Amino acid sequence: MFNKKSVDIAVLGAGPVGLTAAHILADQGMDFTLLERAAGTHTHSYALALHPDTLELLDTLGIVAPILQRALRLQRSTIFDPSNKQRAVIDYGALPVKYPFLAVIAQSDLEDILVATLAKKGHTPQWNHRVRCIEPSAEGVRFTVDHLMEGSTGYAIAHSEQEIDKIYEYQSNYMIAADGYESMARKAANIGFPEIKSSLDYAVFEFETNTRLLTEMRMMVDNDKTHIYWPLGKGRCRFSFQMPPNFAQKHSFNKDHAMVDNEAQESSELSNAHLDHLLHTHAPWFIGSSSDVKWRVMVHFEKHLADSFGNGRVWLAGDAAHMAAPAGILSMNVGMLEGADLAEKLSIDSNEDGRQFRLNAYNLDRVTEWRRLLDIDQNIQGQGNTAEWLLRHRNNIIGNIPASGNSYQAILEQLQLHESIAVS
């Protein structure tokens, strides 16, 4: 029943971030395992778009083609005020990059492609593998893994129909933690995860409509609230309406494998009548039908940033290290870049001094990047009518811009914004 295993690198979490790290490790011929508590890929999640820099990363991994075959390409994002006046435009088509657009794709489709292409490289996620009892040390990381299964024998798990089939005792040299905002690895490494800004509550609706949809992502700024529209293709769209505080239960949003939130179906706040009211109030430009709702959910977004992106042998990427506002899809996109960077730094050689040097550089780079993306130090400034309006609504805009990596600076310039960093 108890089996001992050892591996150079353990990757926790087979979402987009963990799968991206696994692709890099597979390409480099590294000794690794990819462990996932769930039985398979997610059916539904909030993340739904890839930035230009993320697409370039996926191109280097040789997997961008099947993603683009399924994706809807958007060359524009726009920002509107409460009077339905356009205040700013992001033109991805003007960027000097290989993929000058946002690629809208369901996270389920993205994960399916990442899993299928990883299999062609000779690796698959270890589904139904629950990690617990993580014990980092100077020499590595010890942890226990429960292989879960459906059935009536073994050790029963509370509140679950699954049972433990086998228990493994693992020893790894390093751990890449892509195990989400409640990361057990982050907690085991004693890395703080403070809330950096107030949380946000949203009512989210995906529905099929009978009108031709705008082929742009749109933010509607209304005082202290930011509402979001995404076209999804095939006559479907998603609206996310920011609601008053305490609308959604804390931690109500889980990247669940269930397509429909059954509790949400019974909520008056998520009824079709309330959706019509929200559309009329915040998106009067939308004139299509909205009765054919495919998914509705209350979402509670917290904003956190880890004190450090690693400690000793445990290193973080994605939601394990940060949570941001929803419009920019930053946590997934930047997280995939982080997973790749972390895997590359561990793959260059196995010299421990070299690895630790590169990992410390990873931490410095990531902390600096997120302080920029969230403008924690209030360095973003600008001139001109567009910039002045955007800066008056800084809390609505910063962290919601769908851009990351090398494209971020160019998009700030499109918005008449720039970073003014004091030199001491």
TrEMBL record:
Gene3D superfamilies: 3.30.70.2450, FAD/NAD(P)-binding domain. Residues 7-368 form the FAD-binding domain. This is FAD-dependent monooxygenase. It comes from the Bacteria. The lineage of its organism: Bacteria, Pseudomonadati, Verrucomicrobiota, Opitutia, Puniceicoccales. GO terms for molecular function: monooxygenase activity. The keyword Cell division does not apply. InterPro entries: FAD-bd, FAD/NAD-bd_sf, PheA/TfdB_FAD_monoxygenase. Pfam families: FAD_binding_3. Keywords: Monooxygenase, NAD, Oxidoreductase.
